[in-house]
Description:
By secondary structure, this protein is of the alpha/beta class. Helices cover 41% and strands 16% of the residues. The relative contact order is 0.09.
Amino acid sequence: MSLALTLTLAAGCGTPPPPGGHRRSPSPAQSNDDWAIIQQKLIAQGQALLAGDEAGWMAPVDPGNAALVEHYRNLFRILRALQVTRWDPEFTMSIPPILAHGQAPNVHIDMWYCFANATCPAPTKETRYLHGPTPRFRMVVDFGLRVSSGGYLITAVKQPKGDHHAGRPLPWESADLTVATGDRVIVAAAPGQQERLPVAVAAAERAAAATDRYSTLLGAPRPPRYIVYLAGDREWRTWNGGSPGANYAGYAYSASSHQYEVVVRTSARNDLTALLRHEFGHVVTSHGTTRAGAEIYDVNQWLTEGIAEYIEAGGRPATAGPTIAAARQYLRASPRMRTLGLEPLPRNATATQVAAFYGISHLAVDCMARRFGERNLFAFFATVVRESQGPFPASERAYGQDWEDVQRACITDIYRAVGL
Length: 420
């Protein structure tokens, strides 16, 4: 519902046209009154959603528009199933629109929302302009005049032209999802993927049980729930502004610093529990952080992917993983590594490049775990990624060694592990 809402004015609200059909502008006071009515309609709709009041949620929706009514009923069902805990419109216009007859002014709204988070914070002055703890998306509201009963009514929904808060469409706004829950997970399936839900929920529960303990190692808050969306090929190409490519089977994305969600491409046919352990690894190690700029250039990608591979492996050595052959092939064909910090993968990376990157990154993380212990590994990770400090101070703090010495030792171990 990347919503551009069109609301209409019923008889008794606003200035009626004078005889002869000519329109006259409303007074500023009346225009402000109408604007206050519109705001209250949307605020009350959100309150009804959180209370589970479907009639209140549907109250501002034009009952004569069957498709729109169905859309809003489906959206109510999906948002409730996703355990929505916040749905607050913020009216971002500094000057209220002048609601003149026959005109359709655009009104920009930021919708703040949370799923499965009873402590979801309200936005503050500081977090309003940052990637803070509360997700949001942009709504553009159009107003028109319609002589009818019922006051202002929502008569259409459409996506805005752009949204710098979120990649669009969001999974829950673009499809008629079917949602199932477990003790630690919420899994939502796109149309055509519903039959996968029982298997997916069981796999997600196993992955969550294996992943939760890493929050303790990091000293980080545990995600309230892991949220997973099962995408068909069409949804994979479009959700969140477009997929990372055909060489990936899933990804975790940041709706906010405290709400990370996972999308799985069901046609990839990967071991779903292993895949979700990897993606939940990203969720648990990123939860509570902003990771500002990582979407543009992630200098720590080798470490974030390496730690996710480590969590997926669950104690098995990196040499037993499926990417070891690609890592060996890459290392044999390339100049000798001089740093563990591999360059981030390009968006058009081949399947072989992706596998080699993941394999080498896993070997690097595995080396640090073996040499310094798992707890110190996660202390190093927390300093580099969660606290945005470089590997040099992190190595001194976590390992008590210079980073150059750690790299030399682990590079030697990596080549030995692949038989080179």
